[in-house]
């Protein structure tokens, strides 16, 4: 066992800035060496925290394979974590994706980031590969590495019973141990750093679990200013129908989107062959609330509480999960969808990639998987059981390629697209293509203005003006992930309000434009890292299906294929706005 202790006392390390502890840790699992270092001032200034600092620290080391000893796995909190700022309980997990090969970050909630900051750390960086299963334990008094051979083979539910409820933990289930390319890191039992397979990075290092518990307080520069800035944001949230309205996120969780996306005829169905699923009402937010008598839950510091837990403890699936195990796989059975979500959380696998890979498999095989086979395939994937399970555990792109049908993987940069068909929202089409981490809705989230009509409504069937809007939104969300905060708040508030929060917490002097400049710096760094790893313009594209096939039209809505010429023109405009082309 390796233990490093450090002096008790103030949680601010050397000349730290308010909002930061000033202290970070580097852990080499090969040598069992633990080092404590000052959180670099220049990284805090240039990249804030969270995603930004994590990406900057990973840097060119992502030229290595994801399972190389030198590959870093970084858990990075932001300056707002541990304060009274709304949704201040998030962090970013950063490494190279085993699924895509891109630099990859996951923003995840729960209590881990808050406990980490209270224990005195802005971030922890993990390298090396242990020769046996290992646990990391972090507390006010020390940081230790201990053997975890007795935990190997446990899924998340069993680990949760062993670990208990004190503090927080980040762990992998058997999927991460076995190297499933889309394995998740699960926080506190059901919050997932899911996309991209960072659980497989953790598994490759033979790191089973990280436990953290802290009791310190985060220094705030201007407590009264923070209180006032928080109240401004809360007023905007309370006035937002999308957040606190009768049918909003607080009431029904993200599954509130089921009915809206259904009405817009842009719900991916049967592996994106259609865009309308007649049975979606069976798994809507309302159906889950009434069928499971759900109660509200959420991350540390969150006033929205969009997580929904059933009366008997079942964790309700998010919108992307419920739609992909539903419409994408032709399943209207809510119980089967909830069970699929449970299996994914327990084994630790990403729900979007898992569901999309099964849908790809079903199309190639010419079958409808059905609820029973869908659940059976999930378990086979998580265990890499048999030839089918092992092949599907590689993700839809590698599976489809092995079958000679790569065009049937509905992915960008090998990352499967979530539950918004791009034929129904052209900003989303462009955002999928340009995303640094692959087919992701959360890099720019144009659903906000194309579907929710916030902050202003845009024509969802037009590329006009979308290149600049996507660029600005990508920069903004890079800032949000670095503060760290929740994107849902930006349905109501904006960087104007959050710059005041950040200034009150840290004593900095930021405004909207200075924060967007940081977001642009983060985005361009990610783009540069990807380019060094072989990514180019040819990867910024969509599957041919979206340019050749119509969606499901009806109810006075027509869903035509995307005009490829218009798409390429918008992409060229985006490149020029980004400065990638002249």
How do you describe this structure in short?
With 582 residues, the protein is of the alpha+beta class. It has 24 helices and 17 strands. The strands form four sheets. It has a seven-stranded mixed beta sheet.
Structure description:
- The protein is globular, with a radius of gyration of 22 Å.
- 59% of the residues are buried.
- It has a domain at 2-212: Aldehyde Ferredoxin Oxidoreductase,  A, domain 1 (4-Layer Sandwich), CATH 3.60.9.
- The chain is α+β, with helices and mostly antiparallel strands and 582 residues long.
- The mean pLDDT is 94.
Give the topology.
Blueprint: E1 2-5, E2 23-28, E3 33-38, H1 41-47, H2 50-58, E4 73-76, E5 91-96, E6 103-108, H3 112-118, E7 123-127, E8 134-138, E9 142-147, H4 156-163, E10 168-171, H5 174-178, E11 185-187, E12 191-193, H6 198-204, E13 207-212, H7 223-238, H8 241-244, H9 249-252, H10 257-263, H11 285-292, E14 295-297, E15 307-309, H12 319-325, H13 334-347, H14 351-365, H15 370-383, H16 386-392, H17 396-402, E16 411-412, E17 415-416, H18 426-434, H19 447-450, H20 466-483, H21 495-506, H22 512-532, H23 545-548, H24 564-578
Parallel strand pairs: 2-7, 8-13
Antiparallel strand pairs: 1-9, 2-3, 4-5, 4-7, 5-6, 8-9, 10-11, 10-13, 11-12, 14-15, 16-17
How far from one another are the termini?
56 Å
Low-pLDDT runs of 5+ residues are none
Mean pLDDT: 94
**Major sheet strand order:** 1-9-8-13-10-11-12
Largest sheet: 7 strands, mixed
Number of strands: 17
Class inferred from helices and paired strands: alpha+beta
Architecture per CATH nomenclature, i.e. the level-2 architecture of one domain: 4-Layer Sandwich
């Amino acid at each position: 066992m390796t233990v490093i202790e450090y002096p008790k006392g103030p949680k601010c390390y050397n000349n730290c800035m308010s909002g930061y502890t000033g202290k970070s840790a580097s852990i080499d699992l090969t040598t069992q060496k633990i080092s404590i270092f000052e959180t670099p001032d220049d990284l805090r200034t240039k990249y804030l925290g969270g995603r930004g600092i994590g990406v900057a620290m990973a840097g060119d080391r992502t030229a290595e394979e994801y399972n190389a000893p030198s590959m870093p796995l970084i858990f990075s909190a932001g300056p707002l974590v541990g304060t009274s700022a709304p949704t201040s309980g998030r962090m970013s997990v950063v490494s190279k994706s085993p699924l895509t090969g891109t630099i990859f970050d996951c923003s995840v909630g729960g209590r881990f980031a808050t406990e980490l900051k209270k224990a005195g750390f802005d971030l922890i960086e993990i390298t090396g590969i242990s020769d046996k299963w290992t646990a990391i334990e972090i507390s006010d008094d020390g940081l230790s590495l201990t053997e975890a051979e007795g935990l190997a083979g446990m899924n998340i539910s069993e680990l949760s019973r062993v670990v208990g409820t004190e503090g927080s933990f980040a762990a992998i289930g058997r999927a991460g141990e076995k190297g499933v390319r889309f394995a998740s890191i699960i926080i506190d039992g059901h919050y997932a750093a899911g996309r991209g397979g960072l659980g497989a990075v953790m598994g490759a290092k033979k790191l089973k679990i990280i436990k953290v518990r802290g009791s310190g307080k985060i220094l705030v520069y201007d407590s009264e200013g923070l209180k006032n800035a928080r109240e401004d944001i809360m007023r905007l949230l309370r006035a937002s129908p999308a957040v606190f309205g009768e049918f909003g996120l607080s009431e029904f969780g993200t599954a509130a989107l089921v009915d809206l996306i259904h009405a817009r005829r842009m719900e991916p169905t049967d592996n994106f062959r259609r865009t309308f699923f007649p049975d979606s009402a069976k798994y809507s937010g309302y159906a889950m609330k009434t069928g499971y008598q759900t109660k509200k839950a959420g991350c540390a510091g969150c006033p929205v509480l969009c997580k929904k837990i059933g009366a008997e403890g079942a964790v309700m699936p998010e919108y992307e999960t419920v739609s992909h195990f539903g419409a994408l796989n032709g399943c209207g059975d809510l119980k089967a969808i909830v069970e699929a979500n449970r299996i994914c959380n327990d084994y630790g696998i990403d729900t979007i990639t898992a569901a999309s890979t099964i849908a790809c498999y079903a199309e190639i095989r010419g079958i409808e998987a059905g609820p029973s086979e869908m659940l059976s395939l999930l378990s086979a994937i998580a265990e890499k059981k048999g030839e089918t399970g092992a092949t599907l555990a590689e993700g839809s792109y590698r599976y489809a390629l092995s079958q000679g049908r790569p065009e049937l993987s509905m992915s960008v940069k090998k990352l499967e697209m979530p539950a918004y068909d791009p034929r129904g929202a052209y900003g989303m089409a462009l955002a999928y293509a340009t995303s640094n981490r692959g087919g992701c809705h959360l890099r720019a989230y144009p659903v906000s203005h194309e579907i929710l009509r916030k902050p202003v409504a845009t024509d969802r069937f037009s590329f006009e003006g979308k290149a600049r809007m996507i660029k600005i939104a990508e920069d903004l969300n890079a800032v949000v992930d670095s503060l760290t905060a929740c994107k849902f708040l930006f349905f109501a508030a904006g960087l104007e309000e959050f710059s005041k929060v950040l200034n009150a917490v840290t004593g900095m002097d930021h405004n909207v434009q200075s924060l967007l400049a940081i977001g642009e710096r983060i985005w361009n760094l990610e783009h540069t890292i990807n380019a060094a790893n072989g990514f180019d313009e040819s990867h910024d594209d969509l599957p041919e299906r979206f340019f050749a096939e119509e969606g499901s039209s009806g109810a006075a809505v027509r869903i035509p294929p995307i005009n490829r010429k218009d798409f390429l023109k918008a992409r060229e405009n985006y490149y020029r706005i980004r400065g990638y082309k002249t």
